[in-house]
Amino acid sequence: MKSLLHHLSCRKTVRPRRYPSKGFDLLPADKLLEEETTPNYNASNYYPVKIGQVLHDKYQVVSKLGFGANATVWLCRDLTKNSLYAIKVYTSNHDTSCQVAVSESIKTIVGSHPGRGSLQTVKDSFQISGAIGFSHDCLVFDPMGVSYTQLQDAAPNRGLSNDLIYKYATSILYALGFLHHIGIIHGAVSSDNIRLSVDHKVEITNIEAAEIAHPSPRKVLPDRTIYSSYIMPITPGSPVLCNFFASLLGKPRQTHPGITLTSGTHCAPEMVLKMEFDCKTDVWSFGVLMWQLVTGKPLFRSHIPGQQSNDAPYLAEIVSLIGPPSAQFLQRNRSCYNIGIPMETGPSPPHQSHSNASKISIPG
């Protein structure tokens, strides 16, 4: 019965297109490309997607949009609706149940909220089997534009205008407000996990046309083809909070036991120290993000991208910037004493870094 329903739902309204098998730049096989450059890369963990193939009997792969340590991202045409979507094909060892659960929670809420439209939700999900028997989760999303990280990298001196920062901050605060209202902690608010929406579908359609006219550069290996990702244009869309891989579902204002949802210098101290925490950890991450957008530089610099985070230097940076934590805070986790975090002993003089921050001139 289930297979029959799937067959009926996959009745195609458009025929699959033929994509060029030649006319592309063939890249050297010995040069690492895209996902091959990620830490601990293992080719067998990745599903060998090919442009032109049809996934789940309905989604034809059009072009590659991106990659990461846990997935590759592809622009695909739904042959049953003649619509374009972005599909993340995850590595065989990656669990997507949290992302799906968060999306389902968001969809079940009745009523309007200004932050609801600033959250990325899963449109469809399915599994595919790799050549050696591993299964790969696939999540279907509306196509998105560039991330905040990519947007800032493209800006002069990595600076954004006052109006743009205000617009972005408002949208993300509304999105977090909605999540916290229904008891969800995002857990990984950062410039990598916020993208601009694509309001004009022509930008996405142009990718399909470009792939046919000028096929993506690629390198061809015996067991797979590694494609170069299409570079998304910067679009005037609204911010969308994405990637709920580190999220926690619960009740509004619920306190959670001490765990680390993710790593990096956007994490609140409570998470780093594995203390009990609540949704205010997202607010900390939001503040760190705003500093980055305003100044064009990270607030904390102890974490080197691509390397494992080291908690002690990060905590030392926090203390040097805002002063020692209170005794009440330290007593929530005795490990604070083991790594040498000093205790607040009285009123501290204003820190130089704070006085400098008030004089920052925002580019734009």
TrEMBL record:
SUPFAM superfamilies: Protein kinase-like (PK-like). GO terms for biological process: regulation of mRNA processing; spliceosomal complex assembly. GO terms for molecular function: ATP binding; protein serine/threonine kinase activity. Residues 59-364 form the Protein kinase domain. Keywords: ATP-binding, Kinase, Nucleotide-binding, Serine/threonine-protein kinase, Transferase. ATP binds at K88. It catalyses: L-seryl-[protein] + ATP = O-phospho-L-seryl-[protein] + ADP + H(+); L-threonyl-[protein] + ATP = O-phospho-L-threonyl-[protein] + ADP + H(+). One of its GO terms (cellular component) is cytoplasm. Pfam families: PK_Tyr_Ser-Thr, Pkinase. InterPro entries: Kinase-like_dom_sf, Prot_kinase_dom, Protein_kinase_ATP_BS, Ser-Thr/Tyr_kinase_cat_dom, SRPK. SMART domains: S_TKc (SM00220). Its EC number is 2.7.11.1. Residues 343-364 are annotated as: Disordered. Residues 351-364 have a biased composition (Polar residues). The keyword Kinase applies. This is non-specific serine/threonine protein kinase. It comes from [Torrubiella] hemipterigena.
